Amino acid sequence: FRLTEDGAVINRLGFNSEGIEVVRRRLAARRGMGVLGVNVGMNKDASDPVADYCRGIEQLGPFADYIVINASSPNTPGLRDLQKHDAARALIEAARVSRDNLGATPRPPLLLKIAPDLTPFEVGDLVDVAMTNGIDGIIVSNTTTARPGSLRSAHKSEEGGLSGKPLFEASTRLLAEVYRLTSARIPLIGVGGVASGEDAYAKIRAGATLVQLYSAMALEGPGLIARIKRELCALLTRDGFASVAAAAGADLR
Q1: Of 47, 72, 73, 141, which one is the catalytic site residue?
Q2: d(C-alpha 193, C-alpha 196), whole Å
Q3: pLDDT at position 215, please?
Q4: Is 73 in the active site?
Q5: DSSP code at position 29
């Protein structure tokens, strides 16, 4: 659902696809430049959720520049439970073994994608589990189940994950907290409500070394990317930063 007035999207698609074998064939036939991330999750009817993640890594990891453990989609029942301490530890450990067994050189980094709806205690606990179990980076954040009172669209009460502009402030605050908790020891990818160079710059200054976006491009089209890059370059120059890396975490240093 496009919440155009709010610069937002609500989706409840889950992980529908034609199946892992079809995806594997498509990735094997892929010819092109650019960085490819493979985002793996459990099936809705999984009897062994961890095994689903490992199979995804084993089958699709060979084509990935980085692999994402998606433990935060709100659209698969039980999936967010994998962010709890013991479940998260078991999942990360198993996923790391599957990644290491790919035999790729260099090994694709293993990232954890987290929800914006965690309590402060849950955030601290999950980051601690991730850091002590060898995660290579964290993506902050997935979509939210919250519904801010500012929403105006007729679709605002639809079930699913809300993304786009209404998620920006909450996801950026969470990003800054994760940056503080990790002490800049691993890369963070900032996601949630990025629709301009200023938005991307705010994510970077809050600790992101990379930025992702989706909703704004769905609403505005691919020309948005060139505009964001121009605006971001101007902001970096204005503030005397020679690179994105130099600005990462500037608001917290």
Answers
A1: 73
A2: 9
A3: 98
A4: yes
A5: T
